[in-house]
Amino acid sequence: MKACEKCYQLIDCPFNGKDPRQSDCPVFAEQTTCWLFDWVTFYKAMAPGEDKKHWLHTMVDMCRECDVFLEHSEEMEDIFKSMIYID
């Protein structure tokens, strides 16, 4: 895996080929990569409620199945821990 590649370039990302400005994924929208994105600030800015909780659980479940996550699991697990203990 090349350091300069973005996560969405390394996997079959559903956002590939789409306009980043129209993306629901903040990483793709900013054209950055998941292990460098400021997930904690993004998560803190979300309105409280069931959608926020659902989003976190979905992200954790989906990310842990991703090949990019496996390559950057230490960084991503630290991010998840920070997010989980915010609320």
Topology diagram in text:
Blueprint: H1 7-10, H2 26-30, H3 39-45, H4 50-63, H5 67-71, H6 73-84
Query: In terms of structural class, how would the helical and strand content be classed?
Result: mainly alpha
Global mean pLDDT: 86
Query: What characterizes the major β-sheet?
Result: none
Total DSSP E strands: 0
The end-to-end span amounts to: 34 Å
Low-pLDDT segments: none
**DSSP summary: helix tally:** 6
Looking at how many chains there are and whether they match, the oligomeric state comes to: single chain
Shape: globular
Helix-strand sequence? HHHHHH
Percent of sequence in beta strands = under 5%
- Total domains: 1
The residue fraction in helices comes out at 40-55%
- Rg, nearest Å: 13 Å
Structural notes for this entry:
The protein has helices at 7-10, 26-30, 39-45, 50-63, 67-71, 73-84. The protein is mostly helical. The chain has one domain (7-84). Helix 3 runs parallel beside helix 6.
Which terms summarize this structure?
single chain; 87 residues; mainly alpha; globular
Question: Can you summarize this structure?
Answer:
Helix content is 54%, strand content 0%. With 87 residues, it is mainly alpha-helical.
